Amino acid sequence: MHTKHFLATALAGLAAASPIRRADINTFELVAIKSGSPIQNSNIHASGSKFWIGKPTATYCPEQVGSNCPAGDQTAVSQGSSSNTLSMSVVVPGGQLVYVQTDGQVGYTIAHSASIPQGALTSPFEYTPPTDGEPLGSLTFNEKSFSACPTSDEGVYQIYANVDGFTRTDCIGILMGTSEFDETAAWEYT
To answer: What pTM value is reported for the model?
Structure first.
């Protein structure tokens, strides 16, 4: 009897956590915009608690969730209509919050933790949805754009916000384009 009750409770929890998009939340993918650069129109991916161009999206879904897992092969973020913070588009309880470190590195919390690096900020992210006829919206942080900085791996760039503590000089300044995404993207990002 206890097993049936536990199973019913667990299944009800999965149903409640199913990847359904809420109307009051904007969910979108991130795209680098820099005309004439090698990264023009490149998708931005989450991996290792950072954002990248040229690295694949890294996600995890528990085996017991099975077919209820989102595909997990794309990176999307969400912002509530009255919020200036960003969260990863995930199902995992507690979510994953996006932050900007004092040196500009853009990252996200690990699942089941709200811990962010000392001095990191979670706002203000400003999302502007696409206007009629335009395919992309935009995202800024504290009214400033972002940069894509090369790494030691060829074709791989790490995303930074152009904050006061950002001092790298070998980067490509980008506009952060946004492309609407109609569902929850992953169980959790790793």
So the answer is: 0.86
Q: Where are the domains of the chain?
A: 2-189
Instruction: State pLDDT tens for residues 14-46.
Output: 434 444 444 578 999 999 999 999 999 999 999
One DSSP character per residue, the chain reads -HHHHHHHHHHHHHHHTS----TTEEEEEEEEE-TTSTTTTEE-EEETTEEEESS---EE--GGGGGGS----S--EEEETT-S--EESB-STT--BEEE-TT-BEEEPPTT-----TT-B---EEEEPPPTT-S-EEEEETTB-EEEEE-SSTT-EEEEE--TT---SS-EEEEEEEEE--S--BSEE-
17 vs 88, residue with greater confidence: 88
**Topology annotation, domain 2-189:** Trefoil (Acidic Fibroblast Growth Factor, subunit A) (2.80.10)
> Residue 52: pLDDT above 80?
yes
